[in-house]
Amino acid sequence: MGRDFWSGGDHAHFMAEHWHKRLPAHLPSLWSPERAAAVDLQRVRGWLRPPVTVNLHELGSDGSIVQTPVPPASAFERFTDSRDAVRPTLFAYRLHMVDRLFSELLAGFAIGYGWRHTSHAATISSPGGSVGLHADIMDVVLVQARGRRRWRVFPPAATPEVALAQLGAGRMVDWSKTPRPRGDLATLECELSPGDGLYIPALWAHEGVTLDSEPSVSLSFGWYGYTPHIVLAEVAGDEAADRAATSAPHRLFRPIDDPLAGVNPAHHYVSELCAATGVPPSDGLRAAVWDLVTRGPRRTRNMS
């Protein structure tokens, strides 16, 4: 499977210059055309069944994006019926549970941080459709399977600090009430065609819009990013993490860099947490962080 990705030295360059530096990257021809062509709408429709969960994003009368959970069995019909009126977009999760393609693709990325808990999803979007501007606490790689999408990616400095703080704490953000950054602040603008990829680091706001007259299908893989705030909330509770955040917000809400090869991730997180908060290291702290690394954050243990 890995042969479909990272021809030549591209993978080493991506890891060194983008992943570890947390800089976005347009990745042309990331996926082989033959693999992308196998993702047709019939296959996509077959994904929409339990245990997959689906959200429907539609254009509201005021121009905002309205998000609604929908039963997976009826999601595709609802998408088709409303396509011309409200430019719908379906966002489907847990797809590795119904198609091994997602696990194969995940292995093909060769990221190498298996303890970073992952998300597998797909976006099925009508022409002009979008889920709106937003950012994630995950490092995300998107792969375009069908159609074309135009993307803009904005650095964390372009997003209001209150939204970044909510993200860094692992909480939901109401993006409809968050001021949009100016267009000229975008660090990266690109169009994805089938087989192209896009890397979006945690906390970087982004927005994709479907082009052409055909639906777009893109696959997304997210590696959950831990911040000192999230780690502290896991081991000491939300109140303790919020108290610490009042004195060092920027240090607590920035995702912790991945450890170098051969470094125990739990020890790495303990070291980073202690440096950010002044909490002394202890055996109990190391045990609690090991539980976080092996089991995943409380808020996401039932997500994928």
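(the above was protein one; protein two follows)
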Amino acid sequence: MSRACAMVLTLASLSIVPGGSPDAGIASRVPLGQAHASLPRSTGSAPTGADPAGRLGDPDAARRAEAACAAAAMGSPAANGSVDALVSLLADETRVAAPECGAPSWERDGVFEIGEQWRTCTTSPAFEAARALAALGRIAFEPLLGALGGTNAVVRRYAALALGQGGDTRAVRPLQGVLGDTGWEVRLEAVRALGRLHAAPASPSIVARLKDDAPQVRAAAAGALGEIGAGPAVPALVGALEDPDWQVRTKAAWALGQYESAAAADRLAERLRDDHAEVRAMAAWALGEIGDARVVPALGGALGDATPRVRSKAAWALGQIGDARALPALAAALKDSHAEVRQMAAWALGEIGPGAQAQ
């Protein structure tokens, strides 16, 4: 197993949730812990200084992915001649082992959200081509717009991914145009891309995706609204706390915490009794970000939750709020059976201090 794979699996075992965006890329994924040894791998190295254009059409999928990865590392202008070949690869979803052509995959693509399958060392030529086109910047912009308007849904999906990663705000309007695409995966990547671009003018269109038929799109819409930070979206996100899909509820709670919206505090407190532990944990975190002392009793009750992660987040939130009414419950949490909860309770007690007053 490569160093990159080992790192991803280590992060997965710790259930790390990033503090930033909750959205990850759309690389081909395998279930956590599944061996990747049987996936195609390139038998040779792909020096980042070599011209990858000729290898982008290699009969071997792993070499095509490696060549696209090399093009991303080269960037513009060195790989400008590869644009057309890279666009052609956007249809190629062949799953292969992730190449190590420069930074390892966990550095290139970030850490992953809870609820996603982890990107355990697999990729595809399409995903690597999208990364490369994003890295090439302006010279790839018009070709990507053409791909976004094409007839192949796979190509449209990876074009949306590349436009979001490219950071060019001229892509906002075209991406809005595919939010109603017939392919849910295209809608998913368009929503994520608009979030990455912090496209506030697109907020109403993204709010509408909170009612999408696909729960993955609804969850991505909540995450994108959290990244954009558009206050008018708060009522819609509060409504999303009732979504039947737990991942949508989790991301809605995250977004409301990003907004630090006191108007959402009561509804988030209700989510402390959600039937899914991740929703309860995210609601506790969000309440700590908001800092509304009215929810101290509800958070104190969450210190008795059956899941240690929820108890720990509740203790953290109480420390953030700093209300003396939490002191007895936090003192009792010092005897919790899990060390993380005890440590967070001790921290919270220190934050509140012996001279604290009830708010």
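Reviewer note on protein two: The chain is about 55% helix and 0% strand.
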